[in-house]
Design a protein that fits this description.
Blueprint lengths: L14 H7 L2 H4 L3 H17 L5 H20 L11 H13 L1 H4 L7 H37 L4 E6 L2 E7 H26 L1 E2 L15 H7 L4 E2 L3 H6 L2 H27 L7 E2 L18 H24 L12 H25 L2 E2 L1 H8 L6 H10 L4 H18 L8 H7 L7 H4 L2 H6 L9 H16 L1
Parallel strand pairs: 3-4
Antiparallel strand pairs: 1-2, 5-6
């Protein structure tokens, strides 16, 4: 089949070249944005007198018919068409004749694809924001349901200090709020219309780019026609935000994998989000969490692929830029799938507070509180720190913990230590006295929860 761009060449290409050049296999997902954009373009052509109003009405009706037929399944995509733009124009011309050929006046596929991609990713960004919001709300609910669960907090994956499990979970809620904001920021910068830039130099027609942009819900137009067709910053920015989001999901997944192991057993996942072993009948594997962790590398790869594709391109449009869509589509699809799995997996996760407390009662995670106790009695912190470390070392030798260490032995290290030490190093007391803003006390965590809920409202 001769191509719609035939003229300078015969328009007849080798079948292998056709397959290599074709993008309809992946850009057909933008059909709704392509048709909507074309409707606005037809309206603009009529407004400016470039085509007659009756012709614009015919074009818009024809485009609506194609959209309806694609939505209903009455019309299938033609794989012999190069891309979604050529497909829509070809069907329109077949149905309307010469009027259909007028649609492409004062535009190029270069600005058309830039328009479609911005519109498509704008819609996807809105869905991503909704999914991140949903997961954040679930994390807040999990925190609220587990306000009394005390666990050891970790640094270097070593037990460090006692914290509320809800405090730990709220850390991820804070990360997701920033992820949401990054996606929203990317969508805001994305929302500038490139249509009317044409191939890259603009057009000789007196078009109204602002009118077309407004009809399509854009905040304005790109101010340089070369930039309008060759910019893919908006893809990279969204993918960068997505990559950071996936990193956060991966960190949470890693902790879930650890927490569900017999070595921790802090939580148990619903059977709906685990798998078994083909040979070991006792296994309950956290495969969904592991897959989210694994797919993070895939999203990083999509970002690096597009950065590498763009890094050496001269202005303006180059065919290399066709590689943008598969990378950004895959990144968006992957993170959406991960969010849709992570949210119910966390929501149905069973928390096992008795195991958390058992771990919190070991590992001397109240040693800092022992030092703080002596500081409050007038000892310099470094002196108190050394005494506390020496007490821990003696406990280890004797198989004791700070809570069972005899008072007379405490006094050998410092006469400042008295019987009230046991109240001070009680795990619950250690948690509740961490009253600094953002800390792990229950009141502080309640404040965090209220703050996140307020952020989600806005």
């Amino acid at each position: 089949m001769a191509k719609m761009w035939a003229g300078r060449t015969s328009g007849e290409t080798d079948s292998i070249a056709d397959d290599f050049n074709s993008s309809i296999g992946f850009d057909s997902r933008m059909y709704r944005q392509d048709i909507t954009g074309s409707m606005a373009h037809a309206a603009m052509l009529a407004k400016t007198g470039i085509i007659a109003g009756a012709e614009a009405d015919e074009l818009i009706d024809g485009l609506q018919g194609i959209l309806d037929d694609l939505d209903s399944g009455r019309l299938d995509f033609d794989p012999s068409c190069e891309d979604i733009h050529m497909f829509v124009e070809q069907i329109l011309t077949e149905r309307l004749g010469d009027v259909g050929k007028k649609l492409h006046t004062a535009r190029s596929r270069n600005d058309q694809v830039a328009l479609d991609l911005r519109m498509y990713l704008r819609d996807e960004a809105a869905e991503l924001v909704a999914l991140v919001r949903e997961l954040t709300e679930v994390l807040v609910s999990v925190a609220e349901r587990n306000m009394k669960a005390v666990m050891p907090g970790y640094t270097h994956l070593q037990r460090a200090q006692p914290i509320l499990f809800s405090h730990h979970i709220m850390a991820y809620a804070m990360m997701l709020l920033r992820d949401k904001a990054r996606i929203e920021d990317a969508a805001k910068r994305m929302n500038m219309s490139p249509i009317g830039s044409c191939a890259f130099a603009g057009t000789t027609y007196h078009t109204d780019r602002a009118f077309e942009a407004e009809k399509l819900g854009f905040d304005g137009i790109t101010q340089n026609s070369i930039d309008g067709v060759s910019d893919r910053d908006f893809c990279l920015e969204l993918m960068s935000a997505i990559a950071i989001l996936m990193m956060h999901l991966s960190r949470l997944s890693e902790e879930i994998v650890l927490w569900t192991s017999w070595e921790f057993k802090f939580v148990e996942l619903s059977d709906s989000y685990t798998t078994g072993s083909s040979i070991m009948p006792q296994k309950k594997n956290s495969d969904m969490a592991e897959l989210i962790r694994g797919k993070t590398g895939r999203v990083y790869g999509d970002l690096m692929a597009l950065l590498t594709t763009l890094k050496g391109l001269p202005l303006a449009y180059n065919k290399d830029m066709q590689e943008d869509k598969e990378a950004v589509f895959d990144a968006v699809d992957t993170v959406k799938m991960c969010l849709k799995v992570m949210t119910p997996m966390v929501d149905t996760m069973k928390v096992i507070p008795e195991n958390m407390r058992r771990a919190a009662n070991e590992g001397f995670i109240n040693a800092t509180d022992l030092a703080d106790y002596m500081v409050k009695k007038g000892l310099p912190f470094r002196t108190a720190y050394k005494i506390s470390g020496s007490v821990v070392a003696d406990c280890i030798k004797r198989g004791l913990v700070l809570d069972t260490y005899p008072l007379e032995d405490y006094k050998k290290f410092s006469e400042l230590i008295d019987g009230d030490i046991y109240d001070e190093i009680n795990i619950d007391h250690c948690v509740e006295t961490r009253v600094s803003a953002g800390g792990t006390s229950s009141e502080s965590v309640k404040t965090q929860i209220a703050w996140v809920r307020e952020q989600l409202k806005s």
